[in-house]
Design brief:
This protein has two helices and five strands; from the N terminus they run αβββαββ. It is α+β, with helices and mostly antiparallel strands. Strands 1-2-3-5-4 form a five-stranded antiparallel beta sheet, with helices on one face. The longest helix is centred in the middle third of the chain and has 17 residues, at 58-74. The radius of gyration is 14 Å and the shape is globular. The termini are far apart. It binds guanosine-5'-monophosphate (5GP) and zinc ion.
Length: 114
């Protein structure tokens, strides 16, 4: 999608510190990290919100999560623990309308989240 920030990062039009990519997903450093490690993992396919995920996307969403787990392992935060977050719509804190997983780690997380 032409005007989507994360589509433009996935296609290389807008630069980002890419840490992983394959045919289906791209992962990069968050520009405003909220923890020692803060990666964003996105599908290359433009899906605006969690509400727009369709049954045909199930495998893709599974892949997104497994890449997040792989990155956590590579960052050596898998054992201590980390948090995966996917915000939905304004009330959920979503600001970029192309679904993405936040991988946060390297500090103690608290509950409830803000
Ligand atoms: P959301 O609030 O939608 O769940 O998360 C959007 C995330 O994208 C935020 O954590 C924000 O810091 C990050 N972000 C926004 N613009 C950019 C950008 O241009 N580059 C990168 N790398 N991250 C961005
Ligand atoms: Zn997009």
């Amino acid at each position: 999608m032409k005007d989507c920030l994360f589509c433009n990062i996935a296609s290389g039009v807008i630069p980002a510190k890419i840490v992983y990519h394959d045919d289906l997903v791209v992962a990069f450093d968050d520009i405003n990290p909220q923890a020692t490690h803060h990666k964003i993992i996105i599908p290359r396919k433009h899906i605006a919100t969690i509400n727009h995920i369709q049954t045909e996307d199930n495998q893709l969403i599974g892949h997104l999560v497994s890449i997040a787990a792989q990155l956590a392992k590579e960052l050596h935060i898998a054992e201590q623990g980390y948090r995966l977050v996917m915000n939905c719509n304004a009330g959920g804190g979503q600001t970029v309308f192309h679904i993405h997983l936040h991988l946060l780690g390297g500090r103690q997380m608290t509950w409830p989240p803000g």
